[in-house]
């Protein structure tokens, strides 16, 4: 009997239980793998947005999104990396499938099947990587249109982490000339690395005039975030705002504009003073003092239950929070 079984294996005959264990494959050029049912489904969805701070993903944030697209298909988009999210998200339960699209060229972004697959998603998540590539590969393509279709027409939950979070803001740090740290940004807010993208990409209404930043406290990005807001102020945005998210933390924004902070560190909500910086010019150190109240900040601690809440409409915390002000003096960030 064992000899017969071995012979069948050598002949390439697959048994039913072995076939079921194999992951289904997609024929889409951009697809690098799918977990779950390959049959497209359509279920009701509820608008929601997730801003992930990078590093270890927050399981509770994904579960929060799944509740708004329960039983639907999840699509992950990225310009580098692999299918790590597939099994992780599918293992949380409640979804029909999880598919990863590697859109690492404009050719793939322009391929009709790529945008079609994104439009079929009930939940879209943008992985981390290099947001400069997301702008270069996806902007002004059917991929951009498909994402905005999910946001405005289908009203499906959309989220992103790290670089994927950066491109969700109404204003975003595009990193087209590499990244920039706080010291560099404060020393020269018009540094060539300070490539800010103002509109014309992903259009999330609740994040209008808001610039996000990630890996926040872990990489000391408070100073560069202040510089981003200073540039936005100089560029004519009357009331620029920012949301900074620490690693292992996610800000989950519901359809009413109420944010909950899940995870293990914290999120920061910034709003600029009504008056412009005293000195914000090319080649000069940033001074934005305004009686030590250049930017108002609210810090909300993250929890696994998402207890901390913030209202993006009134720009006020709804639960216990820490508040204060940040300002810049001759290129130095001061927290008050």
User: What top-tier CATH class fits best?
Assistant: Alpha Beta
The chain-level structural class is alpha/beta
Number of domains: 1
Alpha-carbon distance between the two ends: 79 Å
Q: How much helix is in the residues?
A: 25-40%
Principal-axes geometry comes out as globular
Query: What's the total number of strands?
Result: 18
Protein architecture, described:
The chain is α/β, with parallel strands linked by helices and 336 residues long. The chain has one domain (36-335): Class I glutamine amidotransferase (GATase) domain (Rossmann fold, 3-Layer(aba) Sandwich), CATH 3.40.50.880. The chain has 11 helices and 18 strands. β15 and β16 form a beta hairpin. The longest helix has 13 residues, at 142-154. The chain is globular and about 60 Å long. The N and C termini lie far apart (79 Å). Residues 1-24 have low confidence and may be disordered.
Tell me briefly what this model is.
This protein is an alpha/beta fold and 336 residues long.
Question: Any chance you could write out the topology, listing elements then pairs?
Answer:
Elements: H1 2-10, H2 16-21, E1 31-36, E2 49-52, H3 59-66, E3 73-78, H4 84-91, E4 97-102, H5 106-110, H6 112-120, E5 123-126, H7 131-138, H8 142-154, E6 158-161, H9 163-166, E7 171-173, H10 182-187, E8 196-198, E9 210-213, H11 222-234, E10 241-245, E11 249-253, E12 258-263, E13 266-272, E14 295-301, E15 309-311, E16 316-317, E17 322-329, E18 332-335
Parallel strand pairs: 2-6, 3-4, 3-5, 5-6, 9-10
Antiparallel strand pairs: 1-4, 2-11, 7-8, 10-13, 11-12, 12-15, 13-14, 14-17, 15-16, 17-18
Helix pairs in contact: 6-8
């Amino acid at each position: 009997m064992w000899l017969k079984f071995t012979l069948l294996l050598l002949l390439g005959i697959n048994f039913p239980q072995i076939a079921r264990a194999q992951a289904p494959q997609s024929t889409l050029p951009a697809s690098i793998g799918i977990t779950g049912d390959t049959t497209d489904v359509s279920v009701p969805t509820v608008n929601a947005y997730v801003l992930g701070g990078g590093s270890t993903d927050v399981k509770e944030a994904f579960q929060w999104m799944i509740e708004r697209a329960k039983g639907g298909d999840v699509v992950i988009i990225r310009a580098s990396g692999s299918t790590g999210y597939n099994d992780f998200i599918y293992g949380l339960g409640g979804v029909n499938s999880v598919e990863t699209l590697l859109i690492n060229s404009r050719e793939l972004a322009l391929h009709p099947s790529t945008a079609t697959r994104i439009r079929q998603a009930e939940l879209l998540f943008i992985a981390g990587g290099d947001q400069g590539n997301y702008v270069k590969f996806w902007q002004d393509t059917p991929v951009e249109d498909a994402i905005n279709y999910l946001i405005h027409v289908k009203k499906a939950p959309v989220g992103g982490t790290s670089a994927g979070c950066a491109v969700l803001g109404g204003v975003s740090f595009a990193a087209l000339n590499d990244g920039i740290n706080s010291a560099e940004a404060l020393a020269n807010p018009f540094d060539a690395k300070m490539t800010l993208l103002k509109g014309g990409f992903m259009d999330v209404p609740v994040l209008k005039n808001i610039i996000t930043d990630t890996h926040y406290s872990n990489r000391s990005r408070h100073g560069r975030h202040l510089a981003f807001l200073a540039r936005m102020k100089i560029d004519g945005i009357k009331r620029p705002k920012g949301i900074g998210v620490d690693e292992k933390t996610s800000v989950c924004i519901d359809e009413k504009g109420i944010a909950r902070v899940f995870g293990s560190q914290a999120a920061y909500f910034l709003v600029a003073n009504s008056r412009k910086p005293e000195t914000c010019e090319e080649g000069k150190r940033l001074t934005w003092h305004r009686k030590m109240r250049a930017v108002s900040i609210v810090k909300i601690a993250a929890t696994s239950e998402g207890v901390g809440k913030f209202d993006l409409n009134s720009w006020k915390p709804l639960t216990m929070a820490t508040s204060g002000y940040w300002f810049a003096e001759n290129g130095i960030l001061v927290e008050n």
